[in-house]
């Protein structure tokens, strides 16, 4: 490649985001302590501008650049848009919460932006090198964000756990990748796919690589039995940070799972399928059963994340286009629901009250009928009650699983969802039928109110008319 | 060939042993020095692989710059490692068992049967005038420009994160403002007061009396 052939247009959104992030980094230095809302506004502006850049270059066909190491296709564009949207929502919902606790630092927004940059790199990476670099960029920003409240011992502990276990997971993934590179002789996904398909490489060595890659990936997404860190981190981190951690990064993680397993190693589908079945079964069990014993709403939602991850893995392990589309649909649904769930905690919190216990939900209907209604939509959707968005997502995944003749797995997932419905409904029972402990509601800024309302109503509307989102997810995989 | 093989075994066993000692030693300065030894042996292994440039960069950057800085920090902070090591003995049996099982399982797979020279033949030696510095320079800013820039952003994020975690603005800390010191004018420090001169009471009388 000569230098004049270097085309930077395919990574224009990333370049714009990086430039704006660096500009905000400089501007933020000149802001005084009480002026962090300026940084917040600029951050939202940067996300909007980047979304416009993604939209302007959008297309369903597959475009390779940088010697085939960067891919832009329908999947990457759709995922980037949702990552940007959900991050913007998370920042809007967390603003008041961070301000009340004196941790609305400029670095919170900056690290968030750099994390988004990492996610965008992950989403459109088509070589092992870029996948790993994007993942590290995202993770490094997130480790530091958990520790943003430095004087809080629980947050520091959570950050330490997240850092050590995240590094371990990265190590596992990297070791698997090095094996894959050693066996196939290439870092590029298409070349690896061909080498795997051709069957020239030894099966045992490939399997060895697959085990480490799968272990690293599920460690990162927090599937059982590698889930130990997830409740501690989500619970220990400030709610504003949990909002960020729990939603958009899962979309990016799905992207690299699909590129690595669904593309590079599709030739050894039966091997990683078996592994993923084990992880999915364990996650569905842990996520739904252990959540029942929780007294903390935040921790309960963390366990709910584990069970949702189990469902996403079910979609991936189907190994078909329909399966991948259902996994994408489920992940987007999950991100919308979870940003609402943790956002509600941040919304109900006030100075000196975290509002993260289940008891804090008691009598929410008396305090604010509208917020109780939003909680109702979110909980119904997470539980998968028919005609909510969560129901369609679960249905799509189960259809994909049934299509590959794994009916027992689908039945098991349904049974676990029914068990899980108990704890979602218990939260609603507390909100509607118990006496309130705290009176009134802290007034919140207009953007948080708007985002939470729109999010709740969008989940309701998408539940009634899910076809547009389902069709979008399906086109992404059929076009490529 | 056999001499190179011998060198490889010497260097790699030193690397593994010093890495092990780095984790187990009690003194944090010793740990840092063992890490230097690990880097050094790894650089030698890379030299054997004909990656001269990378080997030298590892020495210059990690041993020369990073580890020296690190030693400074370790010596200045005087971290007491004893509380960090609590539970080491308690968790040792479980940890050792898991590690042993993993090593045995991995060595079953990673033997010469799958990765031996007959499966993956050694690449032919390069000519004497081959420069891998030039090779790296040729691709670093062309083929790998995008990963290279992302690696730079990772370093920037690490810097932002480190400053966020360590910079503290304590109220009531006294510090010198050199700019303000330099800007100071005479009027800021000295107040000229115009006073009428006064006679000291009884001064002349005393003089006369003495």
Notes on the structure:
The complex is a heterodimer of chains A (480) and B (210). Chain A has 480 residues and is mainly α. The longest helix of chain A is centred in the middle third of the chain and has 32 residues, at 153-184. In chain A, α1 (12-29) runs antiparallel to α2 (36-56). The mean pLDDT of chain A is 92. Chain A has 20 helices and 2 strands. Chain A has one domain (9-479). Chain B folds into 3 domains: 1-82, NADH-ubiquinone/plastoquinone oxidoreductase chain 6, subunit NuoJ (Four Helix Bundle (Hemerythrin (Met), subunit A), Up-down Bundle); 87-125; 131-167. Chain B contains 10 helices and no strands. The mean pLDDT of chain B is 85. Chain A binds chain B through residues 1-3, 6, 11, 18, 22, 25, 66-67, 69-70, 105, 107, 110-111, 114, 117, 121, 129-130, 133-134, 136-137, 140-141, 143-144, 147-148, 150, 182, 202, 204-205, 208, and chain B through 106, 109-110, 114-115, 119-120, 141-147, 150-151, 153-154, 156-158, 160-161, 163-165.
CATH fold description of the largest domain in chain B? Four Helix Bundle (Hemerythrin (Met), subunit A)
* Shape label of chain A: globular
The proportion of residues forming helix of chain A, as a percent range, comes to over 70%
Radius of gyration of chain B: 33 Å
Number of strands of chain B: 0
Which whole number gives the mean pLDDT of chain A?
92
Give the SSE string of chain B: HHHHHHHHHH
